[in-house]
Amino acid sequence: MEYRSSSLVHTSLDLNSFPNYLPANHELQTMFNSYESNIIPPAKHEEVGDLTRELQRVNLENENLMKMVKEMYKDYNLLQMRLSDYMTKNPPQLADKQKSDTLINENSNSNSSYENTCQNPIKYQQTRPKISKVFVRVEASDTSLVVNDGYKWRKYGQKVTRDNPYPRAYFKCSYAPTCPVKKKVQRSTYDKTIVVATYEGEHNHQYPSRHEIVMSPCLNHIVTNDSPRLAIPTITLDLTTPIKSGSHTETQMALQQFLVDQMTSSLTKDPSLKAAVASAISGQIAKS
DNA sequence: CGTTTTTGACCCGCGC
DNA sequence: GCGCGGGTCAAAAACG
Ligand SMILES: [Zn+2]
In the listed set A85, A118, A143, which residue is the last one of a domain according to the structure? Predict the structure, then answer.
């Protein structure tokens, strides 16, 4: 796969099937027009025009890359879903025997996917517990890493993580061990007014305090489902308040970074591809 | 006094 | 094996 000169690459993808998180090119055009008429001296018009067109071209290129990546991610999840279904229908009991067989087949680097995946059947059951991420806009730099979601939580750990200066807090539902639900909460690096809560599992009881659910007025939250079945295609955007243009790019960055995390973590099986994707998208982020 | 938070120790999987 | 990063435990402290 080489799409180095990607502006020449026209994929057969349906480029209209995704919401566009990127700044539109017509915005650049209007920007340029207003500048041209007001600020830029006439002598520079041509130069600015060239730069603007170049910017538009690169913008389009990045846009297409982004779409390709999304398309890849979608396909990847579709495959994973099918594989997961297949594995649940055909419980792999030959795993032990298969081990010796795959040693023989080693140099055929078999992508026959059945043999490969039967070796760790447990993993596919472990990914079953439903994981969902929630982006919550919380009141200005409130240091308490608490998301008021109506449930009662017991904090059982806090760690500093590698690529985020803010610590990550670990919670269990207070009804444990009856209720197995856990959540992780960490403030986003890219928008310090957003905390990301990652829920794992489902509660087997009612809300402990139903009246306390003060879905604090100003939180627009983004809920995505991370289970293999409904991964990316069902990202739901629940923006209870329209985003102001000021925080818009910040939110975009948080969302894009989230997408980067999703995709890269999903594509770890191919390191070179992973690197390419990561650099491509971080370029995307740097631009906006 | 029961519950929750804090926080270092511990564990575990992974890459070298 | 070792170190690293992420996740968990549990004793002590803090809370109400
Ligand atoms: Zn619960």
Answer: A85
Q: Is pTM, for the whole model, over 0.80?
A: no
Name the β-bridge partners of A200: A131, A182
Cis check: omega of the bond before A242, within 30 degrees of 0: no
Nucleotides of C under 7 A from a protein CB: 4-10
Q: Which domain holds residue A156?
A: 131-200
Protein-proximal positions, strand B, CB < 7 A: 3-9
Domain membership flag for residue A260: no
Q: What is the pLDDT along chain A (288 residues), one digit of tens a residue?
A: 333 333 333 333 333 333 333 345 555 555 555 555 566 666 767 777 778 788 877 777 766 666 566 556 555 555 655 565 555 555 555 444 433 333 333 333 333 333 333 333 333 443 455 666 666 666 556 666 677 788 899 999 999 999 889 999 999 999 988 899 999 999 888 777 778 888 888 888 877 655 544 444 344 455 666 544 433 333 343 333 333 444 445 555 666 666 665 555 555 444 445 445 545 544 444 444
How many angstroms separate the CA atoms of A264 and A110, rounded?
A: 23
- A208 CA → C12 C1’, Å: 28
Strand partners, A158: A169
Q: Is the CB of A209 under 7 A from strand B?
A: no
Please tell me the distance between residue A155's alpha carbon and the centre of ligand 1 in angstroms: 13
**Phi first, then psi: what are they for A224, rounded to 5°?**
-125, 150
Q: How many helices (H) and strands (E) does chain A have?
A: 7, 7
Residue A172 Cα to ligand 1 middle (Å) = 8
Residue A177 lies in a domain: yes
